Amino acid sequence: MNGKRMGMATIRLERPPRVRAWAAVGGKKEKDGPLGAEFDHVFSDTMCGEKTWEQAEVHLQKVAVGMAANKCKLPVSALDMILAGDLLGQCVASSYAARGTQVPYLGLYGACSTMAESLAIGACMVDGGFAQRVCAVASSHFCTAERQYRFPLAYGGQRTPTAQWTATAAGACILTAAADDCAPVRITHVCFGKVCDLGITDANNMGAAMAPAAYDTLRTLFSDTGTYPEDYDGIFTGDLGQVGSRLLCELFSRDHIDISPVHDDCGKLLFDSKQDVHAGGSGCGCAASVLCAHLLPRLADGRMKRMILAATGALMSPTSVQQGESIPAVCHAVVLESGGKR
Amino acid sequence: MNGKRMGMATIRLERPPRVRAWAAVGGKKEKDGPLGAEFDHVFSDTMCGEKTWEQAEVHLQKVAVGMAANKCKLPVSALDMILAGDLLGQCVASSYAARGTQVPYLGLYGACSTMAESLAIGACMVDGGFAQRVCAVASSHFCTAERQYRFPLAYGGQRTPTAQWTATAAGACILTAAADDCAPVRITHVCFGKVCDLGITDANNMGAAMAPAAYDTLRTLFSDTGTYPEDYDGIFTGDLGQVGSRLLCELFSRDHIDISPVHDDCGKLLFDSKQDVHAGGSGCGCAASVLCAHLLPRLADGRMKRMILAATGALMSPTSVQQGESIPAVCHAVVLESGGKR
């Protein structure tokens, strides 16, 4: 061990990997939301020109990866690794998107925490010298997720007030080695989370299931690094939504810590409350696309100096919910800083 | 880049992480197979004392992780990371098994290649100094897999001759840093595979879908390291079964390379042909348990000096198969050597 591991779980990256380029791709609802103009590309058609919703989600990932690589003036085939995940059974959006790339593929499953998991593992791979250029990508699609987790869309089921709206979106980041002076953002710390389960069984209240995981990982990160919320320009959970965000602030307030001045949530940022999304956005593509459309540009141009992406995932399946299991959750965090040259 | 990356994709581990301990847990059919006596624990009851098959698979993972940690005289909570995966939608066997461990959890999906993926990422984490003690684990369960991928068991569907039998098993390895002189096995190289798809659409012929991926990764590993099949005491694919193994040998024979003297397959080793398993065993738990029950002990006592585990995964889902998609596959490889002290 060479001092990279701090405290309970946080990893300090000695030669902070750079985020060289990124791309966010979304659907029509994402375009109509507050961040719409910040996406690199939006599709007005739910099918994205494909024959099935699942193929559409594959397309979202492919476009995001292709655009991010293109910004580095690299063909996708020049990447050393793709680290990818999504919400579907057997992560098919990611596997089918990686098909044909000729790039080593690491399939991940962290539900809506996937973008942070892929960034964190990718950053370790680069810092450790195991790869020079990796792509971290995650996606979700409202229609594939509804089919996977809930009801046929044509059934027109009512959504509860605590329900969240799965983003139709993908975000991809290209990570490069510390020596890359052209990259405007770097990853300084990562923290892999533990599985937390406080007994929530309502699959339409994922914010409540995930808030304890976000609290646990952020508290660990603060403690391991000796930092406080005010040391960051922003702490972005993804995607607790309205309900989970309130619970997270409440959990911290019990420790006499007020994170509310710097906290926001990707699920709250992606959509406007007028868009009928109830408690906010969700899905692997939510944190991924908000990071790539909205947050990384602010680090790149110096509007933010240091932020945390703490993406949360609810780790249930339709089967586990039907069997009455409670919903375990996980939150992985990455600390991102402005400036590649420092 | 500091020379860890060799050739196209192979990673040389500079301070080869050790495999300190391992455990294999299985069901009744695995007990009755040729490796039955080598398992650390077998359950005669499909439910493993739980209420559902899914909970039974969770139990298999928990017992495997607990036994492996126990052999290191460590509580599970002393691990730095658990890297885990399984075949189920949203990887619930792994997530629920990690619940309550208080250990940072990295969820992976590589279908039947998962054990190699978890070993490979875990080895990078240890070699990079990001963790000191990690657990790589994978599981499958015949009944959960049939429910997930095929038909209700009570339906009694006929299985085709090329079909494989999902292992009810889990395997767990504890990886430690190179300085651990007590560990009998080390990981010297890892190779993450690309997604290969030659157009197979028959979900009952996974061996054929996966053979090209095994060929691609093994060929890359040989080329990157300048080694030949005869440089290894064994090359174990997991789980091509009878059909895929024949195809793999055929693919290599086109390059005038005969891997048959050293090649075997975890899916062929786990069961006897008299056990009505058709083309052989499969599932994340197949390669994981054959590695832990049968292969690691042979490295530990010197019966083998050097071997490759090249675990293959078919990356389709029930939805993608129903939509007529062909089956993409991936193969991740790890090179294991006898002797922690060298």
UniProtKB/TrEMBL annotation, chains A, B:
Pfam families registered for this protein in UniProt: SpoVAD
Domain of life: Bacteria
Lineage: Bacteria, Bacillati, Bacillota, Clostridia, Eubacteriales
Protein name: Stage V sporulation protein AD
InterPro entries registered for this protein in UniProt: SpoVAD, SpoVAD_sf, Thiolase-like
Molecular function GO terms recorded: acyltransferase activity
